[in-house]
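Async update (no meeting this week)

Hi team, since we skipped the sync, here's where things stand on the single-chain job. The sequence we agreed to prioritize is pasted below, unchanged from the tracker. I ran it this morning and attached the output directly underneath so nobody has to dig for it. Comments welcome in thread, and please keep replies under the output.
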Amino acid sequence: MIGRIYLGRTARTRIARLVAFVVLIGVAALFTAPFLFMIVSSLKSRAQLYGGGPIWVPIPAVWRNYIDAFLFLPFDLFFRNTMIVCVLTVLGTLISSSMVAYAFARIRFPGRDILFIVLISKMMMPWAVRIIPVYLMWKRFGLTNTLVPLFAPYWLGGALYVFLLRQFFRTIPEELSDAARIDGCSEIGIWLRIIMPLSGPALSVIGIFSFLSEWNDFIRPLIYVNETEKFTMALGLRMFMQMQGGNWSHLMAAAVSMSLPAILLFAFTQRYMVQGVTLTGMKG
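Output:
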């Protein structure tokens, strides 16, 4: 009787897992369908694209669409501008946010908790409210129509990233910092030599989030950049759509080329993202 009950529970467990896998596969297919459609459309000829019925596997595949799309506009220049902005954004975010988070997590000073509440309250403010004041500030500095407004704010810290890093820094034993202070190490030295090397998972997820956010950003480049030579990939794709809106194969090829780096980055780093997000919420 016990053996029968055990086998019954095992069978129910296997059925439940099978149902869960089927549901997850269905949800994954639902979310990946637009990207697969974009890839298939980018490999179609004009006749296949505007044919009578849907073609799920274009035969033959027109790989020339990708070459024609990149030759129509200087996407290599757009890619370089985007990489410059993304790299400087990631560096600024990691340096400034980690320093501010270390101050809130490990240094006791008057008004620390109040300042932290003010910082967190900034997360509640819609970004649209700050568009005009921030634009006027950069215009007064004479830095509009440059790449500086796209990455410079991240060198002053970000509320969300400061919050996540502060949560992680508080999980690191304070005895390590106390031992370093006894040996004469300064707060900068503790941050650089102890906290940062032990914060790899949190720093990884912050860097990935900031890179993906800046790579996909469209609104801020649209506001600050006017010259084609300074366009990012998002603005270049919009320009391509305006100039060749009817050529869907070339447009889909350009869209796939822009989406592929972000997708590959997420695919290869999702383990670090999950680990980093989990660890940053371990301690309040």
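Quick observations from my side:
Residues 107 and 159 are 18 Å apart (CA to CA).
Residues 2-62 form one domain.
Reply here if anything looks off.
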